[in-house]
Amino acid sequence: MKNKLITLCMAAVLFMPMMAAASGGAHLDTAPIDINDKDSLKRGAKAFADYCYSCHAASFMRYNRIARDLGMEEKEVRDMMIHTYGKKGAPTKIGELMHVSMTADYAKNAFGTPVPDLSLVARARGADWVYTYLRSFYLDPYRPTGMNNAVFPDVAMPNVLWSLQGLQEAVYKKSEHAGIEVEELEHLKLVQPGTMSEEEYNSFVADLTNFMVYLAEPVQVERRSLGWKVLLFLVVLFGFAYALKKEYWKDVH
Ligand code: HEC
Fold first, then answer.
1. How high does pLDDT run on average in the chain?
2. Using an 8 Å Cβ cutoff, are 188 and 138 in contact?
């Protein structure tokens, strides 16, 4: 028993830094999202198309699946998302995957790193991480883009949403670690307002995060409602099975 306890404690101590590293050590805000809210998902899809889809692909998703899942006309999705042409100059079809025209080489030249595909990012990083990341860019004159990020230090992505959110500055606090004085990022302060208020921007990013959570597992809405139906079926089946068992055994007892 004692040994088990010691092993458990050691495992906890070992894993703690890993868990902290997964979030970059920064505090993550809870993403106020609802995967069943189709209007929010539609707003998120539009935001994705307008601000992200020029650089980031979502190449596990097809346009017509978005139309079907979000209850939109295919034409609506086409007007909102498809601005590219296929290899032979023909318009991209509604049943195609969501690739982008930007090549990995071009991206490497422009940003120093390829632009990651966003299909699965909400699963890999978590919704809270994505929600916090998109609200945590701050001015940093030492970075090539002039911006840094509190949850993704030294990120290569430019802050494409700055005109909506405004510009933020980092406020540091001094603390001591093992006798050495260090500066730690305490919070971010808005120094130049954008076109949206803080509330509007948070809800804009929540919709965008919601859409990315859907992208990462499009079937989840169906899966959850199907799960309840399966449980209901099992309860009913249990009733019948029990009645049958009683019928079979009634002469024995
Ligand atoms: C101008 C091109 C560009 C645009 C537009 C852009 N990004 Fe990025 N994004 C990048 C690059 C480059 C990286 C890689 C950063 C790195 O590795 O340092 C990145 C990284 C990310 C990551 C982190 C991925 C990971 O797990 O490492 C997320 C999340 C992300 N972008 C979301 C978005 C969203 C949401 C939008 C739209 C609001 C957007 N990006 C718009 C270029 C862009």
1. 90
2. yes
